[in-house]
Every structure is written in C-alpha cells, then in structure tokens.
Design brief:
about 500 residues, Collagenase (Catalytic Domain), four-stranded antiparallel beta sheet, 7 helices, binds zinc ion
Length: about 500
C-alpha cells in the first residue's frame, strides 16, 4: 500500500498561511499545519498492538512571557498560573502532567510581542531552552490564538486565548505531541458544506462516514469521526456542530466539538480521543524521550479561598515597623513558592504590591505609615499552580515605616475631603517636571476615572468632576515618576 502523507514544511508555514488577520479581527483559531508525520503514520498502523502504560508522564515546560520593549503588556502571573492549571487538568485524562521547569522567563521585545511567523521563528530560535516544551505567551502570534512551530520546536500563545477556560494551550501541546487537526487536509480550503465533499484535497483523502478510509484520511485516527470544519464554530448542548456536512459518498454528519484538536469554541472542548492519547504517550516515549524526567519531589497543595494566612511576624497586636517591613507566615505544606499581594485597601482587583517569593517570608519597601494593609498569598509549586489565593488578612504599619514613595518637598492634597460639592481638586507639589497619572477607584476596586497631567516645580492643581459618583469611600492612586501612593477620598 502506498503511504500518502503530507510532509510539513517550514516553507508551507511561512509562505502559505496568509492572509494574516489584522488586529481588529478575531484571531484565527490556530496557525499550525502539521499533518500525519511518518512517525504518526507508522504508529497508527500498530496502534492496537502497542502496549500502553498508565504511569503519569511528567514533562518539563518553560513559560516565556513576552512584553513590549518598555516591559509592559505581560499577562499577569495569576492568569498564567490559572491557564497552566487548566493545561494540566486537560491532560489529566492522558496521565500526562507538565511542570514549570524554571521560573517564568520575561522577554521585552515589541517585535516578538506582536509578530508574524518569521518573527516567531526568531523569537524561538533565540530564546528556546533545551529539553523542555517552550511556550511563548504574546499579544499577537501571527494573527492566531496560537501555533506550534515544528521547525524551531516552540509554541506561541495569544494572551487573549489563554484564559482559565480556554483550551488553546492544550490544543497546541497536542500538536507538539504529534496530533494533527481532525479536519486535517481542509485547512485553507473553501467549500460549500451543503455539497458533497471531494474525494481528496491536494492528494490527501477526505474522510468518509462509513470508516472505510479512516486510516488514510483526516487525522488518520479511526476513533475521531469525520470533521471538515476549518473555521471557529459553536456547538450545541451535546457538543456537536449545527453545520451538517456531506461526505464524498453523500452521507451526512455533524462534527464532534468535544475534541481539543477541533476548531470548536472553548466551551465545547473537553477531551482527547483514546487513540490521540495513545499517540501522544507513544510520541513522548519514542520521539521526545529528552523530555522524560522524574516528577518534581513536592507534595500536593490543598488550600481554599476560605483559608487565611497565619502570620507569625509581626506577632498579633505588634505593628509592622521599619522599612522594609518583614512579614513571615506559617508555611503551607507542598508550597515551594508564594505570590504575595499587599494593598492599602481591602480588595485586589488592582494590585499595589505583588511579589513572588521562595519560602514563607517577604520584605516590602515603601509601605505607607500608620495604616492598615491587606494582604493575601497564593501558594504554588512547579507543577501545581491551581490553588486559590487565601482570603485576605491585615496588619498595621507603625510610624517609622517609610513615608509614601515620595521625594523631599513633594506633597499631595485632596480637597475638600470629605467632599459633597461634586468636585474635588488634587493639589500636587513637586520638585520635578514629570507626568502625573491618577486613578479613581471605588471601594469594590472598580476603576471609575483615570487621567494624567504634567507637573512642574511648584504646585499644580487638577480638578476632578465627581458629581456622578454615589456616596462612599474611594481611593485615588497617584503615580509620579514611577513612584506611587494611594489616598482615601470620602464622597458624601
Ligand atoms: Zn491547531
């Protein structure tokens, strides 16, 4: 029997995948065009005779967080950890788990942040770590939600397609571990789905409903049903497409949107097929043997959002004095690291101070004196990033804490405060010419107003219209030359 397969070529990826979407359009679901590789073809021929272990396979993964040249635009650590947690949940059915091989690698490069495929190639060629799955989180990966680039062996993901309920990451890692799309062959083809499909596209057979050519068509897996839908589509409650398709024999069918490797919406997706799982596991054990390592020696973490932090230093009733302030808490079993957030208000939709620390202690500079601070932590280790933040608890700073991040001669006043006049003035005295940015935040943490103005040596005044604001407590966060301070405003 003649073996027919489409060989992936770099030129194909670089040359054929246009036109790219412009920024205003929805990203394309995926930019990967891998077909049934010779290895996968061979494996599919022996899939039912191959023995299969059920051991959990642990694979090292490297997150590269890409921002602009100015170091802005990064996805938050919390959001990346949620997405990584989802990736591990998606692969739990395959007994494949990923762990963060190293701390997140930050890359400031606007040309990578929004890139075309050639920029993505450079990004991976320049920054890949050896013997890990390299994943780059960017703003725009060549107009797609994500892609796997076989030639340079890296994955690019769009921030906007890497939310806690998205499965782009699992889809692209599926490609990394040899899986084609179930509609393989249809990428880039246009077709009137109410008409019977052709027998083949560019030499690759179109899969028939009766299963007669399942090993030579589509993705080559016989337990993934025919699927011709090469665009993002929504599913019904049972996970199937509403678009009825017609195979070359005239038989009609709908597509299975539960497969991670399909182009269905994120909410439809929940599974890899048994044969897809067998192929990914065999690919690790036969091809990607450099990834096989012992699992990290850490226990699991169980913590819920109701749990509080048990603060050891400062002890109960003792002020947190000095600058920097040191906080030490009772270690959480299984945690090797913590994300710590500290705010001068009791909400966390806006973060005043965030650090990742190894071990249960942190030093924080620049806290405001004489005030209550609220803080919470999220424990994690390199393969479990799923735990919640704890609920917040508080501590008081003493009078010897550093004054707000402010230069000598600087001052900031809000008047009147409390205010019932519909207006307040911000009066800033500075010794520098700089841009002052301010944000007005309500007590639930929602941004109400924002603005900026130029300062010069002396006193400047900025008048805010607050006539539309309901009575209550507000905060004005001021940023001046990279320094920031937070001030209360009462509206009566
Ligand atoms: Zn894909």
């Amino acid at each position: 029997m003649q073996i027919i397969y489409k060989v992936f070529a770099l030129a194909l990826l670089l040359g054929v995948l246009s036109p790219l979407n412009s920024q205003n359009q929805e990203p394309a679901p995926c930019g990967t065009r891998i077909g049934v590789s010779p290895w996968l073809r061979d494996f599919q021929n022996r899939i039912h005779s191959s023995s299969r272990t059920d051991d959990v396979l642990y694979l090292p993964l490297q997150v590269h967080m890409v921002g602009t040249d100015q170091g802005t635009g990064y996805m938050s650590t919390k959001a990346v950890f949620q997405a990584f947690c989802t990736l591990n949940e998606d692969f739990a059915q395959a007994n494949i788990q990923f762990f963060l091989a190293n701390p997140i690698n930050y890359i400031d490069n606007s040309g990578y942040y929004q890139h075309e495929f050639d920029g993505g190639y450079d990004m991976m060629a320049q920054n890949n770590f050896p013997n890990v799955i390299n994943c780059y989180i960017v703003e725009d990966p060549a107009g797609n939600c994500g892609y796997f680039f076989p030639g340079v062996d890296g994955i690019a993901l769009a921030k906007g397609c890497t939310g806690p309920n998205d499965h782009t990451w699992a889809h692209e890692v599926g490609h990394f571990l040899s899986l084609p799309h179930p509609f393989y062959g249809w990428e880039g083809e246009t077709h009137n789905y109410s008409s019977p499909a052709p027998l083949s596209w560019e030499g690759w057979q179109v899969e028939k409903v009766d299963g007669s050519n399942c090993t030579n068509a589509g993705d080559g897996f016989c337990d993934t049903a025919p699927d011709y839908l090469n665009y993002r589509w929504n599913c019904n409650a049972d996970g199937f497409s509403s678009t009825v398709q017609t195979d070359p024999n005239g038989a009609t069918f709908v597509s299975d949107g539960t497969l991670y490797m399909s182009y269905s919406n994120a909410a439809c997706k929940s599974t890899f097929s048994d044969d897809q799982i067998a192929a990914m596991r065999a690919n690790i054990e036969e091809v990607r043997t450099n990834l096989i390592t012992l699992p990290p020696a850490v226990e699991d973490i169980t913590i819920s959002a109701q749990d509080e932090i048990n603060l050891l230093v400062p002890a109960s009733g003792v002020l947190a004095e000095g600058d920097p302030v040191t906080l030490t808490w009772e270690a959480i079993p299984g945690a090797t690291h913590y994300i710590v957030q500290v705010n001068p208000f009791n909400f966390f939709s806006i973060i005043f101070e965030e650090q990742i620390v190894e071990g249960p202690s942190i030093q924080i500079s620049g806290l405001q004196p004489n005030r209550t601070h609220y803080w919470r932590i999220k424990p994690f280790n390199w393969y479990n990033t799923c735990s919640d933040f704890t609920s917040s608890s508080s501590f008081e700073t003493g009078i010897t804490t550093a004054t707000q991040e402010r230069l000598p001669g600087e001052s900031f006043q809000i008047s009147p405060n409390p205010s019932s006049t519909g207006q307040v003035s911000l009066r800033i005295q500075t010794t520098t010419n700089t841009l002052a940015n301010w944000q007005l935040i309500d007590s639930r943490g929602s941004l109400q107003q924002t603005g900026s103005f130029q300062t010069s040596t002396g006193t400047q005044e900025q008048v805010l219209d607050i006539s539309g604001l309901p009575a209550g407590l507000y905060f004005i966060q001021l940023q001046l030359d990279g320094r920031q301070s937070v001030h209360k405003l009462m509206v009566n």
